[in-house]
Amino acid sequence: MMSRWFREKDQNFSHISKCTALLPESLVDPRLRHGIARLIWDKFIGAAFQSIVQLVEKTGRRPKDRECRKEIGMGDVRLEEFLLECEKFLDILMVAVRDMPAPIDFKQDLLVEVSLNAIEGGVVQMAYSSFASHLQQSKTTSSRHDQLSSLASRQSLVNFHLVLHHQHLALALRLQLTTGLRFHPLRNLFCVTGNRAFFAPLDSHPLIPLDRVDDATLEKRHAFLIKVAEQGGMEERRLARNLEMEWKLTVNEISFMQALSSFRHGNDHQGALELASCVRDDRSAVALARVLAGRLIQLATEANKRYSTAHSQYLCGLAGEEAARVELYEASGDEDPLVDRNPKTWKEAVTSLGRAGNSVPQSAQAAIPFVRMNDIAKLYFGAQWVNN
Prior knowledge:
The protein is built from 20 helices and 2 strands. The protein is mainly alpha-helical.
């Protein structure tokens, strides 16, 4: 299956996903499953994964289709899907090796055979034969399947943390390609020691500082995940939060970006739930105030009203690009339960976000935009969320 994929990656791309699905289901024995996955990674997957990483690292952007076909043998549209399969293969290796007993170590080149008849007679007779000759004899009589099983079982166990290190890279690279960020993942997300560990044999034991990196690398990781949360969709933000926890970073920024994105898309119900789990401060209050200003601009358009020059300049200056980002919630299906829980008009949207954001500011200075926009909404539309 994988040899067909390797020869014609585009035409037989479905084979790789079938393989990752079949491995955990069909191979119960963890050593055999580990060995087969290790052989597939070393022979078919690892080199292609390394090529993709190096292509992105060279330019900091998504490789062009021509580059992908020349270096990897498949089109650029397959990159994210291939990286996802890489993550699955690495996960199979980690699960298989996690609690597996150590491999048997034959200290003697001998095979001990015990005669059951001799045991019954009270005398244990042991016959010694050459273990090497026994393997040679088995090789000539066993089927190809038995040979593959034997080869897989003899694969040395992978270094769990080294495999996890590669999985972090695969996930970060997939997030970068999905969100379209220009970024150099190796030099920005991993320290010098971590970079040296990449693409080493998975059974080697280099020092992997998964979460013990310098402050500069931590800041770069944090900035990268914030960009993913800001530019990605719901799934990308979920994966960014997972990666942030793996790297032992604070999850507050990602949680807040999730809430902010929900408010931008008019999903106030989900946004309020996510906002409740965040540590709220003046910075988050400013971000919510900008979204609220954007909604007030949209409300004036919907109601066909014009603000005074002073109010218009204030709202436009505060909203910035948020004026073009905000939208009302759109149902994802015929029976979307969130339709009735979210604002349906811009007037409802303004009041909803005003109430949600009113409790966020920690200082009087940060609360000023909410008070002022409450006055504007009350003056022009009779809507308010603060009684003053």
